[in-house]
Design a protein that fits this description.
Strand content: 15-25%
Number of strands: 15
Bound molecules: nicotinamide-adenine-dinucleotide
CATH topology of the largest domain: Dihydrodipicolinate Reductase, domain 2
Strand order of the largest sheet: 14-13-12-11-7-10-9-8-15
Structural class: alpha/beta
CATH architecture of the largest domain: 2-Layer Sandwich
C-alpha cells in the first residue's frame, strides 16, 4: 500500500489498536462513579490556587474541604468563593509556613491540590503521598534530583498516585501531534525542540521592581528553572519512561543581563536591582540524549523582551511538525516535495478525543487546565493511575537540578532512571484511553 493510502486508513484503526496495546496494567481508563464525592484540600491560594479552586468546585462531585495559605485573608477569599457559588465553607489553615501539616493531619482527604511557591512543592507532595492522599501539584513538583527521588519512593511505597499539573501536555495541538505520532505518520521519532520563551519579568518582579519569590531564586541559582512546559508534550511524543528514557543532560547558560536591564529601564539606574548581581542566566539551553538515540533541545528564556513562544518541533524518519511555523511536512504525503504545508487541516483531522469531549465554557489557558483537572478527578474517583504519573512528573522537574549541576561543572550530567529499569517494558499510558 502506498504511504498516502496507508495514512487514509490508519486513522480509523488507531483507537482500537491503542486500547489493546497501549494500556499500562496499573493505569486503566477511568470509570468514575457519578455519585461519589471527592474531598479536596487546597494548599496555596494565590493566582493559580484560586483558578484551580474555582474550576474544581465547578465539578459536581468535588468538595473543597479545607484551604491553606500563609495569609488568613487569602483563605477567607477562598472561603467566600465557595460560599458565593453555593458550596459549604471550607476549613481554614493559615499564618505559618507549616500550617499545611495540620491540614493533612486533621482532614480526611482524597486529593490535595498544591499551588504554593516552588520551594515547598516537593515536601508537601511527599507528606501527602505518605498519608495515601492523591497529589495534584503545580509545576515544577521538585527543584532537586533528591526531591524527585523522594517523591518516587513515597508514591511507590504508599501506592499513591502523584501528578504534576503540566497543562501544556494537554494542549489541543500537542495532543493531535501525539495522535499522529502514534499512527506512525512521522515515522520513528528522533528529535524534538521545546521552549518556555516568555518575557515574564513583570511576573518575577513586582510593581516597584522588587523581586517576588521567584525573582529571589535568580540571585542564588543558575538553571533551567521552568523546564516543564517545554518538555510536557515532548516526553509523550518521544515515549520517555515508556520505551525510552533520558540518559544525559548538558546545559549552557548565557550571561545574566535581562533583569538589570529591565529594572534600569523601568525603575531607573538607582534602583537596587538595577546593579545587583543576578546569578540566573537569561537563556538556558539544555541538550538531552535518550537511550534509543533521540535528542531534545530545550530553552528556558524568560528574562529578555520577546513575544511568547514554546517553539515545539518534532522530527522523525517520515516527517516533521513545527508548532511555531504552524506547519507540517510528511514525506510522500505533503503535496510539494520538501515544502511545508499548513498544520490546520491535520489539527482538525487528528483532534484528540479529550478535546472533542470537553465543553468550551471555562478553565484557564483555553481549556487544558480544566481538562487536566477533570481527568485527575476521574482518576481519584475510580482509584486509578493519574493522567501524568510520578515518573513523568519528576522527569520533567529533574531538568532543574541537573541543569544547575551541568552549568556549574560545565559538563554533561547523567540523567537518573526514575523508573529503575522499567522504562524498557512500560507501555505508553498518557492520553491513550480515548485517542482519536
Ligand atoms: N501551569 C501553569 O500554567 C501555571 C501558571 C501560573 C502559575 N503556575 C505555578 O503555580 C504555582 C503558584 O504560582 P502563583 O502564580 O499562584 O503564585 P502566587 O504567589 O500568586 O501564589 C502562591 C501562594 O502560595 C502561598 N504559600 C506560599 N508558601 C506557602 C506555604 N508554605 N503554605 C501555604 N501557602 C503558601 C502564598 O502565600 C501565595 O498565596 C507556582 O508553582 C507557579 O509556577 C503554573
Amino acid at each position: 500500500m502506498k504511504r498516502r493510502e496507508f495514512l487514509k486508513t490508519a486513522a480509523a484503526g488507531v483507537a482500537g489498536t491503542a486500547m489493546l496495546t497501549g494500556l499500562n496494567e496499573t493505569i486503566k481508563a477511568a470509570e468514575p462513579n457519578p455519585t461519589e464525592k471527592v474531598r479536596v484540600g487546597f494548599i496555596g491560594i494565590g493566582g493559580r490556587g484560586t483558578d484551580h479552586l474555582r474550576t474544581l468546585i465547578g465539578f459536581p462531585e468535588v468538595e473543597a474541604v479545607a484551604v491553606c495559605d500563609l495569609f488568613k485573608e487569602k483563605t477567607e477569599i477562598a472561603a467566600k468563593i465557595c460560599i458565593d457559588t453555593g458550596h459549604p465553607a471550607p476549613k481554614l489553615y493559615f499564618e505559618s509556613d507549616t500550617a499545611w501539616q495540620s491540614l493533612l493531619e486533621k482532614e480526611k482527604l482524597d486529593l490535595v491540590i498544591i499551588t504554593t511557591n516552588w520551594e515547598s512543592h516537593a515536601a508537601i507532595s511527599e507528606a501527602a503521598l505518605k498519608k495515601g492522599i492523591y497529589v495534584g501539584c503545580e509545576v515544577p513538583i521538585a527543584l532537586s534530583v533528591e526531591e524527585c527521588w523522594k517523591l518516587v519512593e513515597a508514591s511507590e511505597q504508599n501506592k499513591t498516585p502523584c501528578m504534576m499539573l503540566e497543562n501544556w501536555s494537554f494542549r489541543r495541538d500537542n495532543l493531535a501531534v501525539l495522535n499522529m505520532i502514534r499512527l506512525g505518520m512521522l515515522g520513528e521519532i528522533l528529535h524534538a525542540h521545546g521552549a518556555y520563551s516568555h518575557d515574564a519579568r513583570s511576573y518575577w518582579f513586582d510593581q516597584n521592581g522588587n523581586t517576588r519569590w521567584h525573582g529571589e531564586h535568580f540571585l542564588k541559582e543558575n538553571r533551567s528553572f521552568y523546564s516543564t512546559h517545554g518538555l510536557g508534550p515532548i516526553i509523550s511524543w518521544l515515549d520517555i519512561n515508556v520505551g525510552d528514557r533520558f540518559t544525559e543532560l548538558y546545559a549552557v547558560a548565557t550571561a545574566a543581563r535581562g533583569a538589570n536591564s529591565y529594572i534600569k529601564q523601568k525603575f531607573g539606574p538607582d534602583h537596587p536591582n538595577a546593579q545587583k548581581e543576578f546569578k540566573q542566566g537569561d537563556i538556558v539551553t539544555c541538550l538531552l540524549k535518550t537511550a534509543k538515540g533521540k535528542s531534545v533541545v530545550l530553552n528556558c528564556d524568560t528574562l529578555l523582551p520577546r513575544p511568547y513562544a514554546n517553539r515545539w518541533m518534532v522530527q522523525g524518519t517520515l516527517g516533521i511538525y513545527d508548532e511555531e511555523k504552524a506547519s507540517i511536512y510528511l514525506d510522500g504525503v505533503s503535496p510539494k516535495e520538501h515544502q511545508w504545508e499548513p498544520w490546520k487541516p491535520y489539527a482538525e483531522k487528528y483532534d484528540h478525543r479529550y478535546w472533542k469531549d470537553v465543553s468550551n465554557d471555562s478553565g484557564g489557558h483555553g481549556n487544558e487546565d480544566r481538562m487536566e483537572l477533570r481527568l485527575l478527578i476521574d482518576a481519584v474517583k475510580s482509584k486509578n493511575g493519574v493522567p501524568l504519573d510520578v515518573y513523568d512528573s519528576v522527569t520533567m522537574s529533574a531538568v532543574i537540578g541537573l541543569s544547575e549541576m551541568s552549568i556549574e561543572q560545565d559538563k554533561p550530567i547523567e540523567f537518573p532512571d526514575f523508573t529503575k529499569g522499567h522504562w524498557k517494558d512500560r507501555k505508553p499510558y498518557f492520553a491513550i484511553d480515548r485517542m482519536l
